[in-house]
Amino acid sequence: MPHPVRIFMMILVGATIAWYLYAHGHEFRLLLEFNPAYIPILLIVPFATTFLNALIMRRLIQEFNVKPSLNECYALTAANALGNYLPFPQAGTVARGVYLKKAHGLTYNDFTASIVVTFIQFLTIAGLLGLGATSALVITGQIIPKSGIWIIFGGLTAAALFLTPSAWSLPIVNKFKRFGTALDLLRAHHVTIYVAVIQVLFIFVSTTGLFFAFQSLDQSDVTFATALMITLFFLASGIINVTPGNIGVAEAATALVAFLLKKDPTIAITAYTLHRIVAALFIFTLGPICTAWLTRKSLPNNNLPIDPILQETANDNHA
Question: Cα–chain-centroid distance for residue 245?
């Protein structure tokens, strides 16, 4: 996305958030009903999702002859999550690529190809789970959603077409060098299956966090299936990524799916906000510690202080 357009979108999203808080701020009094007994389970969720992401990253880059420890992958995943709150698009992901290049020699092409493959696979899984959850709600008579939800989840499922050889010649796919080669390599060693299983676990752990966020606000009528569909929406909204930490965009996605499910959008946003705050507290506590540890770990052999990583991130995004 061009830089001026991104700035405009950030301003637009910020203005929308400000307007919504002004118009509906009184409705967030629901947060006053938060039950602190749920804090332990809500804190376990970001710890677990970070661990699952670390497993995915470690298994992926092992196929490119990079052998980091699980501790290093966990620290790098936490630092990645922290970096994504910087005012650069995907700053944490870019910094992770720079680190792996400097510390382990992983090429940017291989790194980018692996990221694209797993992201497309994630969208496909999200679409399939969304269609399944929607069908379950309809079959059990719990809810009759608006037709738009079928279209959106169907569109996410269609992302699977990008994983077929016929799509590799498309400009949007061909832009990422070694995409086809990386996909073939990952498939040959059944890595895509391993990653898919972990991605499903990641989605269900994230859903558990949101589900208990609803429960902590005394919203016992929200089912796990409903929480699952909301989770799928805000996770998939990362494809837009115009604001630091996807702030505003994820909330808009949450409100949209609540509307399509004929639920109160404000309650959904409030529960998601609680879910995000807990995750952010975890990442902003652990992220700096992990970043410092990675910096010290790399300094003796690679002369890799954190400032050049952030500088290269900024340069890549202003290029």
Answer: 9
**Backbone conformation region of residue 13, classed left if phi is above 0, alpha if psi is from -120 to 50, else beta:** alpha
130 exposure class (CB count in 10 Å sphere: 0-12, 13-18, 19+): buried
Task: Give the model's pLDDT for residue 306.
Answer: 44
Which DSSP category does 243 fall into? S
Assess whether pLDDT exceeds 70 at residue 12.
Answer: no
Report CA Rg, the chain: 20
Give the domain ranges of the chain: 36-78+94-202+270-314
Residue holding tokens 């990422």?
Answer: 176
Q: What Cα–Cα distance (Å) separates residue 314 from each residue in 88, 93, 194, 294?
A: 7, 12, 33, 19
DSSP state of 248: T
For 183, residues 6+ apart whose C-beta sits below 8 A from its C-beta are: 113, 117, 163, 192
Contact 102, 299 (CB under 8 A): no
| 231 touches 203 (CB < 8 A) | yes
Q: Mean pLDDT lowest for which of 29-38, 80-89, 175-184? A: 175-184
**Separation between Cα atoms, residue 251 and residue 249, nearest integer Å:** 5
Predicted confidence at residue 146, as pLDDT, reads 77
170's torsion region: left (phi>0), alpha (psi -120 to 50) or beta? Answer: beta
Do residues 143 and 261 make contact, with C-beta atoms less than 8 angstroms apart?
Answer: yes
Residues 6+ apart with CB under 8 A from 303: none
Helix (H, G, I), strand (E, B) or coil at 152: helix
Q: Are 219 and 33 within 8 A, CB to CB?
A: no
**pLDDT confidence of residue 216:** 92
- Contact indicator for 168, 180 with CB cutoff of 8 Å: yes
- Quote the CA–CA distance of 16 and 27 in Å, as a whole number: 16
CA–CA distance, 77 with 68 (Å, rounded to integer): 12
CB 114 within 8 A of CB 64: yes
DSSP string, 9-50: HHHHHHHHHHHHHHHHGGGGGGGGG--GGGHHHHHHHHHHHH
